[in-house]
Amino acid sequence: MTDATHTQLTLKYRPMAFADVIGQEHVVRTLKNAIASNHVANAYLFIGPRGIGKTTLSRIFAKALNCLHEENPGEIEPCAHCRNCEDIAAGRSIDVIELDAASHNKVEDVKPIIEDIQFKPTASKYKIFIIDECHMLSNAAWNSLLKTLEEPPPFVKFVFATTEGDKVLATIVSRCQRFDLRRILTKDIVSRLKYICGKEGIDAEDDALLAIARGAEGGMRDALSSLDQLISFKGSKITEEDALGVFGLVSRTSLENLASAILKGDDAGILEAIDAFDSAGKNMRRVSAELLSHFRNLVVLKALGPKSKSLEATEEQIAVLQAQAQGVDAGRIFKICDLLAQTEDKLRYVLSVRTTLEMSLLRAGRIASTATIEELMRAVRELKAAAPAPQAPARDSAPVPPPPPAASDAHRKEILDDPVVNSIIDAVPGASLSDIREKRK
């Protein structure tokens, strides 16, 4: 019997070089240029949400600084084969020390670093200290590091990583080069998952990978953990239903159909969709968040077009967004996004989550289908521009009575001259034409 130990995908496919890092090009470019120009700072601070590569990037940077480059002297990328690279990757390098500040956050935990700084590295060019979750360090621990950070020996470098940059002391931030790492785009996560599935011999539907990427919320580590869980649950063939069932997500087509119902003002379609989600045990707060993301993509597409890098969508999603954007005013989408953002905040505190979401989506449908004050005023201006100019009667001839106006002219004159219409427009922003007719009665 063969004893095969399973290696988690998060460890097996962890980036080993700058070229493997996804979604953090701005940080990678700066670090590589600093190494190439020999302008490496004393300390670096990586800030960003979980699972986007802060600790991984710290280790790659440490390898790049201490790599022996036996095969390609002068190369910036770590070779991953020399003794230093292998030791750093395995966590056994005596010149690259990692500290988890979540569990070692006192002055006593920092003192060994201060004492160790005075000794030169044993087998490397630099002695590098990587402190993860550094916001957990106590003020006393930070204060003990202040002088060392400002004037460290030339062979010492610090790399700090944290998910909560606002909790790091300003005096520390001022002594570091700060990098804000971004959430990884959904399409980039899907692309990486496809690559890994190909390597592992996993047959996964595109919509299944998209569901995993949506659930990861920009974190590659979360996405790989979810994929690993699905492989354990379903084996080598994964469908969208499998991903939705395990993680409680809503299918892409269901979400897009709900967005279409909102844009059409289809109350029945909205209520039926919410009932189906609730019956299937879907998380209503998650539905609200994903709807907001969908309409945000719709705003980006309307403003920047389908090729924009800010568009967090796959090719299939972009095709649906383009169809939905036809004939929809951007101002309406802005208002829907604003309403959904307010709803997402409300859902954290209300008891009846479903009812609150239903009422909000029905209001969103009204926003999408009701004439706005801007549209009414634009129609009035167009009618005024199209109205013929009055002609003065001749001096020596008797005034000729004007011909009776046509039906369209009479309707135009009624809109332009009726004080009730104008008072409704002034008093009720967003009043529809049906509202105006009802008021006039």
Structure overview:
The protein contains 21 helices and seven strands. The protein has 441 residues and is of the alpha/beta class. The protein has four domains: 9-180, P-loop containing nucleotide triphosphate hydrolases (Rossmann fold); 186-247, Helicase, Ruva Protein, domain 3; 252-369, Up-down Bundle (Zinc Finger, Delta Prime, domain 3), CATH 1.20.272.10; 373-387 and 406-440, no CATH class. The strands form two sheets. The protein has a five-stranded parallel β-sheet with strand order 2-3-4-1-5, with helices on one face. The protein has a two-stranded parallel ribbon with strand order 6-7. α6 (139-150) links the parallel β3 (127-132) and β4. α3 runs antiparallel to α4 and α13 (267-279) packs antiparallel against α17. The radius of gyration is 31 Å and the shape is elongated. The relative contact order is 0.07.
Largest sheet properties: 5 strands, parallel
Q: Name the poorly predicted regions.
A: none
Radius of gyration equals 31 Å
CATH architecture classification of the largest domain: 3-Layer(aba) Sandwich
Order of helices and strands: HHEHHEHEHEHEHEHHEHHHHHHHHHHH
**Domains counted in the coordinates: how many?**
4
**Fourth CATH level, the homologous superfamily of the largest domain:** P-loop containing nucleotide triphosphate hydrolases
Short account of what is shown:
This protein has 441 residues and is of the alpha/beta class. The protein has helices spanning 9-12, 25-36, 54-66, 83-90, 107-116, 139-150, 170-173, 186-200, 206-216, 220-234, 240-247, 252-264, 267-279, 284-304, 315-325, 330-346, 353-369, 373-386, 407-417, 419-427, 433-440, and strands at residues 43-47, 96-100, 127-132, 156-162, 177-180, 203-204, 237-238.
